[in-house]
Amino acid sequence: MTLKTAAYGAVFLVSNADPGPFAMIKESFAASDTIAGSSGLIRDVLTTGPLPRLPEDPAAVKESVLPALRRSVELLRERAPGEVSRYQATVVAAAHQVAEASAGTSEAESTALAEVLAALQVTTDR
After folding, report:
1. Rounded to whole angstroms, how far apart are CA atoms 39 and 114?
2. How far apart are CA 16 and CA 23, in angstroms?
3. Which backbone phi and psi does 54 adopt, to 5 degrees?
4. Tens digits of per-residue pLDDT, 57-76?
5. DSSP states of 46-86 as a string?
6. Stated pTM of the model
7. Measured in Å, how far apart are the chain's first and last C-alpha atoms?
C-alpha cells in the first residue's frame, strides 16, 4: 500500500498544483493509462486491490506522499531491487503525463514534479 499511496499521491500532487475541473479529468485519464501500461510487479502492485486513501487537505497530502515516495524506493531496494527503476519510471511518467495533459506544464506543476523526482531520487533532463 505504501507504493500505491506514493504513486497515486504523486499524481495527485502534480494535478492539484494547478487545479481545474476539466484539467483534473484529463489528467486522471493520462495518469491511469500510464500506470496501467506499466509491467511486472509494479503493474500488479499499482493496479490491484483498493485505491489508497489520501488526506483531503493538499498540504497533508504532500506531507504524507513525499515520505511515502522515499519509503517506496527503500522498500523496493530491500525487497525487489530489480523493480526500483521500473517503479521510478512509472511514477515519473504518470506525473509528467498529468502535468502535460492540460495546456502544458505550469510553473506550479513543475515545482510539484521536482519534489516528486527528488523524493524518488530521480534526475531527469525533461
Report:
1. 24
2. 10
3. -105, 150
4. 888 999 999 999 999 999 99
5. HHSSPPPP--SSHHHHHHHHHHHHHHHHHHHHHH-GGGHHH
6. 0.89
7. 28
